[in-house]
Design brief:
This protein has 552 residues and is α+β, with helices and mostly antiparallel strands. Among the domains are: 99 residues, Alpha-Beta Plaits (2-Layer Sandwich); 48 residues, no CATH class. Helices cover 33% and strands 19% of the residues. The strands form five sheets. Strands 5-6-10-8-9 form a five-stranded antiparallel sheet. A four-stranded mixed sheet has the order 1-2-4-3, sandwiched between helices. β5 and β6 form a beta hairpin. The two termini are 44 Å apart. The structure holds flavin-adenine dinucleotide.
Length: 552
């Protein structure tokens, strides 16, 4: 298979993974999940929804006429339209399981260069067609759903996966010019022969792209220091309906508000990010990781605060509450996965000091773990990591049984954390029980930690009804946004705003700032065709995503 063919492999529309590697229908495994759900919730075992097939969806005819000069890069194939009409949010997966397609994209385009993107945008602007940039489609908050309201003549999804090359490496400055549509594994494979890594590993790494990471300001696997996409971007190039905009490659600059900051997190509403110069790293050779147990979650959080303020900057500092870590740590203890790595020097001095600090705060650990090769993949921490990597695949199976299982992530300053965590946990348990009439489960871990606060990541589940689970999820989602923003947190730390978080975003961000953003959008996207409904409405258009949190 040629490189281009590899990157054109079809993704699975109803769940995680490639279509040709998707878990086959496995009646025994489905039954096992149905039994687990029935036992966990004390209800009779129900028949799970079977795997959906493309032919089972009613996909409306495409509303757009492709101009002859663009025909070669566009397709109206139903399977392609289905893949590109759904992201990976709970409603996306549930809709797929229910054979529902609330909004269908009319056309999928695979441009190969900036000239083709500009031609597509010109056509779309002239014909009043909305354009949705699409990287890996791994958005968990409706970022690529073609839900654009009634004022457009159609929707084009612009898939960037043919822009998949590392174009240039500047070894002196340790930076690389990389195309936006490259998927995580391809990016790392192209840097590896040169001894480099971008070292940005979101859990969705395999099925997400550089452009998507920049457009959503994604957060990588590592806990502190260089982990957020913002830290790695040196300059960006974006094709907008008004022309190409590019920022200058600089290690830093005090020349006014940063152009990069305007493009990062723009979620496709300003234009199409086509490439970026990225700060790359030497591949780490010194690594060590150790699980630390705590009897009390808040005591563990205080330890993490001390670590995050110690200037040690551990690579990994993932605190997992006792319930979430129960499969590997027995259920009585919160587990902190503490790790360091370096491409330059042994990490022992840093680890020694961190463990001294951890011990002073009452954490317990078995130091011999550090002597094992690949300690980051061994023992309880390694087991948790494996379960974590498999979780996206199991999700579709659970949703097919009516299990409402989802996550939300936020950030808060340390001074507010204990009350914030306690109130969110209590509220979410209450709402899930009220909405589903069944037991609830709400757990928390830290994905990232900063000297001034953590980024807590909540996972929740409750048993809904297969026919009503999307509405039930909406009520729970509205409650999570309401409680997080009311208590002073952010509606998202790294999953972005998309369509689903918009009510929380409106609560959180000053209206004057939103007006300023809208004015900037109007200059770059005068006819308002770029990803309508995300973040803000285009000027003079009502896309229909606003309203109170309960309306959504
Ligand atoms: C199982 C799972 C695990 C996840 N883990 C993480 C995690 O660890 N960290 C994290 O941050 N996120 C995570 N996510 C969320 C998601 O993977 C990220 O938001 C990711 O950055 C999206 O990248 P993508 O290429 O898939 O973009 P898409 O989902 O295709 O698009 C996301 C948004 O960006 C816009 N966009 C995409 N490409 C471009 C471009 N070139 N130019 C302009 N706009 C563009 C789209 O229009 C859309 O608004 C996870 C999601 C799943 C399903």
């Amino acid at each position: 298979m040629s490189k281009k063919e590899v990157s054109m492999r079809k993704m699975n529309f109803w769940g995680w993974g490639w279509a040709d590697e998707a878990e086959p229908e496995d009646v025994a495994k489905d039954k096992e999940m149905a039994r687990f759900v029935a036992e966990s919730y004390g209800v009779p075992e129900a028949e799970p929804l079977t795997r959906p097939r493309v032919e089972e969806f009613s996909i409306p005819d495409s509303r757009v006429q492709i101009p002859a000069n663009l025909r070669d890069m566009c397709t109206t194939d139903p399977h392609e339209r289905l893949i590109h009409s759904l992201g990976k949010s709970f409603p996306d997966i549930a809709n797929a399981a229910l054979r529902q397609l609330p909004h269908a994209t009319d056309l999928v385009a695979y441009p190969e260069d900036e000239a083709q993107i500009a031609a597509l945008l010109d056509w779309a602007a002239d014909d009043n067609i909305a354009v949705i940039p699409f990287g890996g489609g791994s958005t968990v908050c409706g970022g690529v759903d073609p839900d654009v309201g009634d004022s457009y003549a159609g929707v084009i999804t612009l898939d960037l996966r043919k822009l998949d090359q590392v174009l240039e490496i500047d070894k002196t400055s340790r930076a690389a010019r990389i195309q936006a549509g490259i998927l995580g594994p391809d990016l790392e494979a192209q840097l590896k022969p040169h001894g480099y890594t971008l070292r940005h590993f979101p859990q969705s790494f395999e099925f997400s792209t550089l452009g998507g990471w920049i457009a959503t300001r994604s957060g990588g696997h590592y806990a502190s220091l260089y982990t957020h996409m913002d830290d790695f971007v040196e300059s960006i190039r974006i094709v907008t309906p008004a022309g190409v905009m590019e920022s200058r490659r600089l290690p830093g600059s005090g020349a006014g508000p940063s152009p990069d900051r305007m493009m990062m997190g723009s979620e496709g509403i300003m234009g199409v990010i086509t490439e970026a110069w990225m700060r790359i790293q030497d591949r780490p050779t010194f690594k060590g990781s150790i699980p630390v147990l705590f009897k009390d979650f808040y005591q563990a959080a205080e330890t993490v605060r001390a670590l995050s303020q110690s200037w040690l900057f551990p690579t990994n500092c993932r605190l997992i509450d006792a319930e979430e870590a129960s499969g590997v740590a027995g259920g009585e203890h919160a587990m902190l996965v503490l790790g360091f790595e370096s491409a330059d020097h042994p990490i022992d001095a840093w680890m020694d000091r961190a463990l001294e600090l951890v011990a002073d705060h009452g954490g317990s650990f078995d130091r011999s773990v550090l002597e094992k090769k690949d300690s980051n993949k061994a023992g309880a921490a390694g087991q948790w990591r494996n379960a974590f990597m498999q979780a996206p695949y199991a999700r579709s199976r659970a949703i097919a049984c009516g299990l409402i299982v989802d996550t939300f992530e936020t950030a808060i300053t340390w001074d507010k954390f204990p009350e914030f965590h306690a109130e969110i946990t209590a509220q979410m348990n209450k709402v899930i029980r009220e909405v589903t009439g069944n037991n609830s489960r709400v757990t928390c871990r830290f994905t990232h930690v900063y000297p001034d606060g953590p980024a807590p990541y909540f996972t929740y589940s409750g048993l809904g009804t297969t026919s009503g689970m999307i509405e039930q999820w909406r009520e729970i989602k509205a409650a999570s946004m309401e409680v997080v923003t009311r208590l002073g947190g952010t509606v998202t730390h790294h999953h972005s705003v998309g369509r689903d978080h918009r009510p929380g975003y409106e609560q959180q961000v000053d209206p004057l700032f939103r007006d300023a953003l809208q004015a900037a959008k109007s200059r770059l996207d005068p006819t308002g065709i770029m990803n309508p409904g995300i973040l803000i409405d285009p000027e003079n258009r009502k896309v229909g995503q606003t309203g109170t949190m309960a309306d959504r």
